[in-house]
Amino acid sequence: MKAIAVEPGAGEPVLVEKPRPEPSSGEALVRTLYVGVDGTDHEVIAGHHGQPPDGEDRLVLGHEAVGIVEDSNGTDLEEGEFVVPTVRREPNGANEYFERGEPDMAPDGQYAERGIVGAHGFMAEYFTSPAEYLVPIPERLAPLGFLVEPISITEKAVEHAVASRSAFEWEPESALVLGNGSLGLITLAMFETVLDIDRTYCLGRRDRPHPTIDLIEDLGSTYVDSRETPVPEIPAVHESADLVYEATGYAKHAFETVDALAPNGVGVLLGVPEPWEFDVDGGRLHRELVLHNKALLGTVNSHRGHFESAVDTLSQLPESFTDDLVTGVYGLEEFEAAFETGDDIIKTAVEFGSA
Amino acid sequence: MKAIAVEPGAGEPVLVEKPRPEPSSGEALVRTLYVGVDGTDHEVIAGHHGQPPDGEDRLVLGHEAVGIVEDSNGTDLEEGEFVVPTVRREPNGANEYFERGEPDMAPDGQYAERGIVGAHGFMAEYFTSPAEYLVPIPERLAPLGFLVEPISITEKAVEHAVASRSAFEWEPESALVLGNGSLGLITLAMFETVLDIDRTYCLGRRDRPHPTIDLIEDLGSTYVDSRETPVPEIPAVHESADLVYEATGYAKHAFETVDALAPNGVGVLLGVPEPWEFDVDGGRLHRELVLHNKALLGTVNSHRGHFESAVDTLSQLPESFTDDLVTGVYGLEEFEAAFETGDDIIKTAVEFGSA
Asked: B residues 107-136 near A, CB within 8 Å?
């Protein structure tokens, strides 16, 4: 079978031939339909993140997949069922996090991530997976099933944010998304249409006209150009935000989030920056966190429950939004196009087969 | 009646004569028994924090009180009942935070704090209060009733910390208290004896022998001298902490908390520092928050529910601990002694009358 793999740092993925995998006991064999591409894939390709399984030079890419059960292999799944795989797997034997269904809470070294670190991804014509990590999705949603994984990331972040404010009455009326990449835009759409937050803002650094700015405004949200309005000035220019979602990986934003938050607000941090020293007014930030009961939460990955919520969320996202978000789906013969970046490209996927 | 008041910035409180207050409708008249002294009082005395009611030069001090209902004035309280007052009051008319019983979540300007900002405190022979802000306490606990307010601060902080980790399985086994002032020590005792956290650590910067170090070790906790083991080195020298409680007001500790935390841990920040710029490795801290699902929460003040929990907690604190914690209770004729600071002084109170 064909697969898309990369030698980390090589700078570009290649098409390789691999044997079709055989499902072990408890695993199903899945025929791949679509696999999305995101920033993490680009970091793996560039060699900034991730690594192949032990003893291998190349890593099969892909962690945002949807497929169809080819061989249920005695599991509870049905052949022909559409499924989305979760990403984390036991590294070498199970641990308490996997045992209780919370692999997203496992610390470094206690997980592999398919397509990212220590385990091959889903960019292959077939893949196998333990049935418990395959989440059913209705057939009609399958063409956008590669959006379930990124949506699940925000399901988790929002769950943690809401939990952190559950000791008092908290109904967010304003939300700010830092970053207008695909995850930021998906999150903005969730805030606008599923969570029904009254007023939302999305920060970027792009000139008009730009398709992501059109998309932000079509959602009924307000675009904030960080070159004109830095994050700490957003409360004065627009308003403070009950909920801030950081999806830039720009470390100063993590600290500026404290200033952008309304009293009793929460900022969820999703970006994964490299070390970077800079000056902060740590006294003022500390004081502001305390006197206004503010919270900052880091969150990474997601578990099966978040994938299940994400399938439901995907069914609620307006078609006009997903039409504009997904700027290209490419067959295996032109898979390179799915990895191109550019001003007109928002979200892409590779098509491995049809339903 | 006699009261202890201060002209903010004057540097020392004085005994003044004031008329005994008359309870308005819905208020009870309370005869004061004891009022504790804490760091906030010292900041008010030094003029770093707080202000008298509008149009007055002097502020009656005291926000950690216990008293006995002298005149129930038609409220549901009973005369002779022992009560502890909460601290925040409506500033000028109610607002949503007070209406829903969460004055602790009110932002700046939407509250007065008795004995601190905009309202006289409880360091007077009598005070009045709306009955809803008077929390009953058993007679046998009344001699330590001035500890209920500081305990309530930690009740809230812990409630928010636990809520922030409620989206997953979280059972803290290790906790680190930054600061061995009276609030830090009270919190440490709560962690050890009420929350039953397996292993606790308390950071200070004092030489042995020192009464607070004895107190820490008598609780079964480990003293960490910050001059030998800076906060970021605590995980290597001792262990990382599932829960960090910052009670120093030293802004660098707020950021160092991220390094002291175990994966999926939460740091609660209580200190209120002045502005202070310094360098941080913001990239590394941001990354660490995200990849290990860490949380930082600011928290201030407490509401009636926290005071009720605090009464229960006070009943569970070992007498050996409170005996060592309270280093002096002084009558009105020697009230100045309660405001002295020094190496042998941990927690003091002024006695206004006997039960």
From this structure: 107-108
